[in-house]
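Key result, reporting period 2: structure in, sequence out.
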């Protein structure tokens, strides 16, 4: 005679099955969550790596990092040696990092819509007499409304400028009255010919420490090259000016704009 399961045995069997089922569901949920997080982090790391590579290349090949020293800024301005890419701008807009080569160049996205970038910051670190470095920091997040897929990382790094500034055309200030060097950071000798010492200028060999406002090691030539001699009068600003005038087949003359015995300004022939 066969005997069926009792009610208690059935309840025990159902309970065991439920426990096993819940355990498998928890394991499956954990595996799924790990896969989702792994996928999100992979996208964030891939996008960030590409962005860092572009930033590093742009900074290393720039001739000049054109942002203030030790002042965080959201836009990186780089002066490049090629006119087709000068200047180069890297900035953030609506969660996307853009590269712009030349003032009229098109905006090139460096990150996709899979991620969102915030708090992008650049800071130039001066390192005289070495090359400048740029500190970079930003936060990059996986772009999703699903909380389970959310993944965010903060990146901070520093890139050292490799190239020095070179110029194949004129050098012009960005605005009026911009100085070229200052009292605490003076330019080195120009072609080992022109030197500065405080407010004094020396020209020529061995004039690396001029004691007067202008010292010249060599001859000084006044050559108007056909330019008409200006008026020497009370309204002019040429008082104290020397002017050399060629005499053609005759005698050359050296003039000085000076006040004569009567108090009038005139060109006085000194030779």
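The corresponding designed sequence is given below.
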């Amino acid at each position: 005679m066969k005997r069926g399961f009792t009610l208690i045995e059935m309840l025990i069997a159902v309970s065991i099955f439920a426990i096993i089922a819940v355990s498998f569901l928890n394991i499956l949920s954990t595996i799924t969550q790990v896969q989702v997080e792994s996928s999100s982090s992979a996208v964030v790391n891939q996008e960030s790596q590409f962005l860092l590579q572009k930033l590093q290349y742009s900074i290393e090949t720039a001739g000049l990092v054109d942002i203030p020293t030790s002042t965080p800024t959201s836009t990186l301005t780089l002066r490049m040696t090629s006119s087709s890419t000068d200047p180069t701008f890297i900035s953030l807009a609506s969660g996307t990092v853009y590269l712009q080569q030349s003032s009229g160049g098109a905006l090139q996205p460096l990150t996709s819509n899979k991620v969102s970038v915030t708090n992008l910051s650049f800071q130039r670190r001066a390192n005289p007499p070495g090359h400048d470095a740029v500190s970079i920091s930003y936060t990059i997040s996986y772009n999703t409304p699903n909380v389970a897929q959310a993944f965010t990382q903060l990146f901070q790094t520093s890139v050292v400028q490799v190239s020095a500034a070179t110029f194949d055309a004129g050098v012009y200030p960005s605005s009026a009255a911009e100085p070229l060097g200052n009292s605490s950071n003076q330019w080195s000798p120009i072609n080992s010919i022109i030197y500065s010492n405080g407010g004094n200028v020396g020209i020529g060999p061995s004039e690396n420490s001029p004691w007067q406002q202008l010292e010249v090691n060599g001859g000084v030539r006044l050559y108007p090259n056909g330019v008409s001699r200006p008026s020497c009068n009370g309204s002019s600003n040429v008082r104290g000016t020397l002017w050399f005038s060629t005499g053609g087949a005759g005698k050359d003359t050296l003039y000085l704009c000076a006040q004569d015995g009567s108090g009038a300004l005139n060109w006085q022939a000194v030779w």
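The two ends are 148 Å apart (CA to CA). The chain has three domains: 9-160, 188-220, 221-271. This case is discussed further under Risks and Mitigation.
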